[in-house]
């Protein structure tokens, strides 16, 4: 195991157990979004580099798949222990590259270790079945890994996703090509350094680069039959289109414009706290696909709820993300910062009422900081009610009729998560049944118990993650009929 996770200013990629430059020699500068300093550089891979990684993965995978699943699980648990020992180092890398507050990134590092451990124990569930047959034959199924899997992850949880999203394909016996975000790859590369003496060479390959080049090469590679992508809807469409040429198994975890419903009988102080936490403001500045960015609050309690919500937001500390007392850091990079400000301007132009925030905090002269923002009196014809911001911006809509509420909650292209706060279990059950969302919370901020399937409806994606369903998705079922001789 290495002593230093980041050895030089210019990093290399992990391909076939070796640390290599991009074939072109090109690199990407990684900017600290809080200070604008360049904190590292890493290779800008192209299709030739992806070819190299596929060759290495294909060569390593058969021996990895032949290893007993219990042994693969043991290696993943060892890796989880190593991550816990160095959680702060990984967290600080994500703070430096993505501006994410240290407290949240420490939780991310520990969460990544837990995800490795969860999948490490599931291998015994990758089992087939026997099918009734005549006395002279045996019919059964078995599950086999795809071989080489591509895993493309986003910038909002760089380390947690780099680790957690490779756990299932690795445990299932696949070799993996991991493509981390082009704005935040250092923690993924550090993960590779932690694992390089533990996993056989070529089983885990980390290919850095631009999504439109390296990511596209992975999505369209003829020898990668299984690709999983987490990110935006436009990029998800591109991955799906690229995979279609070779009839790949593609799974997508995409965006959300998720409703949180406040009923007249809700515990308003607790609901206001949950709205802030469920928006993921203190952890990712709202840069989360499951954030409750649309709040539907009943007319009769709207004013009181919004008073409490603004108070909760005002208590959040904005500033240096390396300080463990900081709740809100900058958003990830310049282009994203500018898009968020465009969404805010559109909301103002459409007539939404600004309650708090609305731009750069007064005490932050540099960095890509956006103050947590709340718009009231939003209506469904406004752009802020329909478009995913992926930032610290909440749209508040008022309601009085339950059927109309459900119609509006479902009147977007997304269907990832939904939440409702009420003491009336009949109301809660009607909402949970009728809302178009892959996961629904009742009187909860959005915590995910280990093993609960996570995935969306409509444009929010295809497939489930964080569960047995995810593990199974990295295998193919084969049917065998054997005639007795």
List the helices and strands and how they pair.
Elements (H helix, E strand, L loop, with lengths): L12 E3 L2 E3 L6 E5 L6 E6 L3 H20 L2 H17 L1 H12 L3 H19 L9 E2 L5 E9 L2 E5 L5 H14 L3 E5 L6 H10 L8 E3 L4 H10 L5 E5 L2 H12 L4 E5 L5 E4 L5 H11 L2 H4 L9 E5 L3 H13 L19 H17 L2 E4 L16 E4 L16 E7 L2 H8 L4 E2 L1 E5 L3 H10 L4 E4 L14 E2 L2 E2 L5 H6 L1 E9 L2
Parallel strand pairs: 7-8, 7-10, 8-9, 10-11, 12-13, 12-18, 13-16, 15-16, 18-19
Antiparallel strand pairs: 1-2, 3-4, 5-6, 6-22, 11-21, 14-15, 17-20
How would you describe this structure to a colleague?
- Helix content is 38%, strand content 20%.
- By secondary structure, the protein is an alpha/beta fold.
- It has 2 domains: 263 residues, Aldehyde Dehydrogenase, Chain A, domain 1; 191 residues, Aldehyde Dehydrogenase, Chain A, domain 2 (3-Layer(aba) Sandwich).
């Amino acid at each position: 195991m290495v002593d230093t996770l980041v050895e030089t200013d210019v990093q290399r990629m992990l391909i076939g157990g070796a640390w290599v430059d991009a074939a072109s020699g090109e690199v990407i500068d990684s900017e600290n979004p809080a200070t604008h300093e360049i904190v590292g550089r890493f290779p800008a891979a192209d299709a030739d580099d992806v070819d190299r990684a596929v060759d290495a993965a294909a060569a390593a995978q058969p021996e990895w798949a032949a290893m007993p699943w219990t042994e693969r699980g043991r290696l993943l648990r060892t890796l989880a222990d190593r991550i816990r020992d160095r959680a702060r180092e990984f967290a600080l890398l994500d703070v430096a590259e993505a501006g994410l507050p240290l407290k949240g990134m420490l939780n991310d590092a520990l969460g990544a270790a837990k995800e490795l451990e969860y999948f490490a124990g599931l291998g015994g569930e990758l089992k087939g079945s026997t099918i009734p047959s005549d006395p002279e034959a045996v019919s059964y199924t078995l599950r086999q890994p795809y071989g080489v899997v591509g895993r493309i992850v986003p910038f909002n949880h760089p380390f947690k996703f780099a680790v957690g999203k490779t756990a299932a394909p690795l445990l299932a016996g696949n070799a993996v090509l991991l493509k981390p975000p082009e704005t935040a790859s250092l923690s993924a590369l550090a993960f590779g350094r932690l694992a390089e003496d533990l996993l056989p060479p070529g089983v885990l390959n980390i290919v850095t680069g631009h999504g439109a080049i390296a990511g596209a090469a992975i999505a369209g590679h003829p020898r990668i039959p299984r690709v999983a992508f987490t990110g935006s809807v436009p990029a998800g469409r591109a991955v799906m289109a690229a995979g279609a040429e070779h009839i790949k198994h593609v799974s997508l975890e995409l965006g959300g414009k998720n409703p949180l419903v406040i009923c007249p009988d809700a515990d308003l102080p607790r609901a206001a706290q949950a709205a802030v936490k469920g928006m993921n403001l203190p952890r990712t500045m709202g840069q989360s696909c499951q954030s409750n960015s649309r709040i539907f609050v009943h007319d009769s309690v709207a004013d009181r709820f919004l008073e409490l919500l603004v108070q909760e937001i005002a208590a959040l500390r904005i500033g240096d993300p390396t300080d463990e007392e900081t709740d809100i850091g900058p958003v990830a990079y310049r282009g994203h910062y500018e898009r968020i400000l465009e969404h805010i301007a559109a909301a103002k132009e459409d007539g939404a009422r600004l309650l708090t925030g609305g731009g750069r905090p007064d005490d932050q002269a540099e960095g890509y900081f956006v103050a947590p923002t709340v718009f009231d009196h939003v209506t469904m014809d406004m752009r802020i009610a329909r478009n995913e911001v992926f930032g610290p911006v909440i749209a508040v809509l008022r309601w009085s009729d339950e059927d109309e509420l459900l119609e509006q909650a479902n009147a977007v292209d997304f269907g990832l998560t939904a939440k409702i706060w009420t003491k009336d279990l009949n109301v809660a059950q009607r909402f949970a049944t009728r809302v178009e969302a892959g996961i629904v919370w009742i009187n909860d901020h959005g915590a995910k118990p280990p093993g609960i399937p996570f995935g969306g409806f409509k444009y929010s994606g295809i497939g489930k993650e964080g569960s047995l369903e995810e593990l199974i998705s990295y295998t193919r079922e084969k049917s065998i009929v054997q005639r007795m001789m």
